[in-house]
Amino acid sequence: MSAAAQGVQTVAVSEDEDGMRLDRWFKRRFPELSLSHLNKITRKGEVRVDGKRADTSTRLATAQMVRVPPLNFEPKAPAVVRAAPSEKDARAIRDMIIYEDKWLMALNKPHGLAVQGGSGTTHHIDGMLASLIDAKGEQPRLVHRLDRDTSGVLLIAKTRKMAADLGEIFRSRQARKIYWSVVEGVPHPMQGRISLFLAKGPGMGDDRSGKTQGERRDPEKMRIAKHGEEDARHSVTFYAVVDKVAPRLAWLSMKPITGRTHQLRAHAEAIGHPIIGDPKYMGKMAANDPRRTDPLRAVPAEIERKLHLVARRLVLPHPKGGTLDVTAPLPPHMQKTFDLFGFDVKQYDPIEDAPE
Predict the structure, then answer these.
(1) Which pairing describes strands 97-100 and 48-49: parallel, antiparallel, or unpaired?
(2) pLDDT tens-digit map of 96-143
(3) Element (H, E) at 121
(4) 3-73 shares its CATH topology with 176-353
(5) Domain map of the chain by residue range?
(6) pTM of the predicted structure, to 2 decimals
């Protein structure tokens, strides 16, 4: 038997519900309400927003008034038993925090830890955030992503509304991101702009087996594409050499203007200077393989073969006012490389003067 709720209600949309679809708003407010019943009462015009008829896809705004007619609820389903929040995960997340306020936090994501789950990935930041759910049932949310092997600044929103606000800042390219890398060889010119189209998968003219020039492409690897190709997306990065050990390697500061998958890794390979420790974009031979055409560019054996890429700094307007400016320390393997060659993290970074 279904149960009828109380009579007609008029409910105000809260700030945290701004931008939410009407069907999701009902699910949040009345979790026992079936979708079929919601569709029925909206079709009949019984649900109104600020006095006007609305459908389930209507986007709500803060302080709007939703007319809720008497509702019929389905029998309550057995409670879902959820795993207890992991205190170990909570401690691990807290140990990563390099900035925190009431609305958001910035983590120093370590090398090797995935941001989200995927094929065969069960341990990741997104899952760990469930350990920080608050008394209102609000769970911190990812705002952007980093590759598993990229270290550095990762921004987390504490509420749904803050996640939406920060997401819009990233989409409108108001966020300034600076990455540091150590690359094979020394780029010339010392400062420049990389502008390319990137796409996944086999390129035009590849055979149906997915092979190009006798080699099978990595389906997850980005490739240089031509304008007009299916799925090709424009990508732009400014770079500057901060210091170097010529001709072997260089400390590169990189400012991505767009945010494509593997953008910096693919751009570094495209200019002939792949990031050290990147198995996906360093070509068929290791950087220290004596068969390379230029053995002087062989990476010293003392350098750990981990990806030398860190999301060093993130600057953006804080949705609550002012500017958020967060810097992450180098991961241990990059710090060892910097110490080995005497690179000074306090040295002037030319990328600061690159265009926005």
Answers:
(1) unpaired
(2) 999 999 999 999 999 999 998 776 778 899 999 999 988 777 899 999
(3) none
(4) no
(5) 3-73, 87-171, 176-353
(6) 0.74
Give catalytic status of residue 147 as yes or no. Answer: yes
Output the pLDDT for position 355: 74
- Give, in words, the CATH class of 176-353: alpha beta
- Residue 352's pLDDT is what? 84
Over the stretch 293-307, which tens digit does the pLDDT of each residue have? 555 667 788 999 999
How many CB atoms lie under 10 A from the CB of residue 69?
A: 16
Rounded CA gap, 291 and 287, in Å? 10
Domain 87-171 is classified in which CATH homologous superfamily? Pseudouridine synthase (3.30.2350.10)
| Residues 66 and 10 sit within 8 Å (Cβ to Cβ) | yes
Residue 351, amino acid: I
Which residue of the set 23, 126, 134, 147 is catalytic?
147
DSSP 328: P
pLDDT, tens digit, for every residue of 160-181?
A: 899 999 999 999 999 999 999 9
**Taking the domain 3-73, which CATH number applies?**
3.10.290.10
Helix (H) or strand (E) holding 114: none
Q: In angstroms, what is the C-alpha Rg of the chain?
A: 25
Helix axes 35-43, 22-29, angle to 10 degrees: 130
